[in-house]
Specification:
88 residues; alpha/beta; 2 helices; 6 strands; 15% helix
Length: 88
Amino acid sequence: MKEGIHPDYREVVFQDMSNDWKFITRSTIQTKETIEFEGKQYPLIKLEVTSESHPFYTGKHKIVDTAGRVDKFRKKFGSVGSKTQVAE
């Protein structure tokens, strides 16, 4: 491979902000934040939704309200369309 043209491929911690779940994977994504995880320092990427919090994978409807969108949707459609349980 040609030297100096490829991005840095390294281990990165992704953190689900809704439930504080963290996992390590490899990525070329750039970030300014770091975190100490399992005794090592890693770059940190913060996510709003992952497989640990998404209703499709959990089977529970968890509300992540950003700027009142959930309330606006509920006013418009009511309870029609949601087939998952609302998490408490």
